[in-house]
């Protein structure tokens, strides 16, 4: 159970006690401020009967005890613990006894002040010795110091045992509380960006016939707010951390992808993300000039690791172009345009006179999804440059046209089943024929003006064939798209890229299928993800096992998955806006609706979205008809 309000984090099991085992603990900026927090009442640990997340940053544990001698089997004390990501824990004891109770309460505390990376790799040292400090305990080590203060102050504080003690007199039906606050010394109070009044994520809501849509959108919005991080040098700019607990820092490709899927919640997150990454852009001379740097990412058994910097560099102009359509202010667009131009210049300089964008390492492959990202960046980037009278749009379109022709010739193999796209071409031109979920990016062509989608790398017939392949049982697990088809050599249901379901790619497939007119297949994938979300209490992890869905089964969690994860939370927003087909063009003052006629979720009402900087609400009926219920005064419904 992971409570997140970055830079604060609390990791617990469903037993409520923090034992210091594994990842358990309270964290601040990746350091474990408190590892152990074990409560005993009348010398015994409470029996936990319920544990649940009450919000993205808070968990609640209910335990019981029977303390009255010869009082029968019923518990007469209820212990409620509320643990927050900001390091606060409130312990409340409620008596149901018919006589006054004297309840001794002990809280055993300890920490190692280890960083998250060391804990994950199993290289932490022993707990640090404690000292009595103010109304609690303090620990210090080579990496700083932390302390826990208690209200009310304890009757006894035993540093050698790391123990705080109270003796409470509780009347019949009465209650008492203790509040503990763990903090890292030298750090200010946790001020999560998502909880501020200036949060860039709009609090949208969903209601409708399907009871799952409301909690999915609510949880997705909460998780996005919890993962927001301020740029330390520019606190007004926020971006999304990749996910908790493993990746609480900036991952450029994931931050851009998540901000793009979250555009229905407003453009301020996109603007902050773009500004943060523009400051990291490589400048000067050399072949990497204009790139947004990023780490390498595992690509499965059949391909070497990929460069997320390439993906981020291609996503940058796409996000800026689409954010402008959703209503990014002109001043922000103009400010960020030079960085987008540098990304597009890097693209043209890197491909030179070749049709494909290769991996940057020597001998690197030509990946299918990289060509999809590059093609989209070229077309949306050209549209953006033209809008501001900047040169280069024609050259980008010419290259995109050449890429389309070459891709349809080289990346498609015909077979008796109708053919398929290649996963990649090796440096010497040999095909890598495996069927992967990354081909879903071929369906994501990007939004142009007037509610039109950009042309894709595949023609209409081959797009239909790709949709049929992705919707087939070897790819669709019933919970979402497997990373690698189940009948391919090397398939592993838990493989990061070899068979696990990645929520982001499945959501991209749903949106792409819907935009291409394949609503039956889009609806099936959408319902599968909704079922998975329900099994995960509507907090989707970044991935889970690609085991086939059974009648009474639930998806298997992946032990290394982040949950919450920025791309998974943003995918929840994208999924629920697909049935309405909202396609804004704020510069033209229009919004076009392309709802799914089959209404796969029945009636659905989305309120609190943002288009052109103003609240936007839309209703889709059971007949698949869409109606705008709230919008900016200057926004017209497009044809």
Automatic annotation (TrEMBL):
Record-linked InterPro entries: 6-hairpin_glycosidase_sf, 6hp_glycosidase-like_sf, GDE_N_bis
Pfam families registered for this protein in UniProt: GDE_N_bis
Give the domain of life. Answer: Bacteria
- Where does the record place the region Disordered? 189-211
The positions making up the signal sequence are none
Q: Which GO terms describe its biological process?
A: carbohydrate metabolic process
| Putative glycogen debranching enzyme N-terminal domain segment(s) | 10-180
Q: From the Swiss-Prot or TrEMBL record, give the protein name.
A: Glycogen debranching protein
Q: Which organism is it from?
A: Streptomyces antibioticus
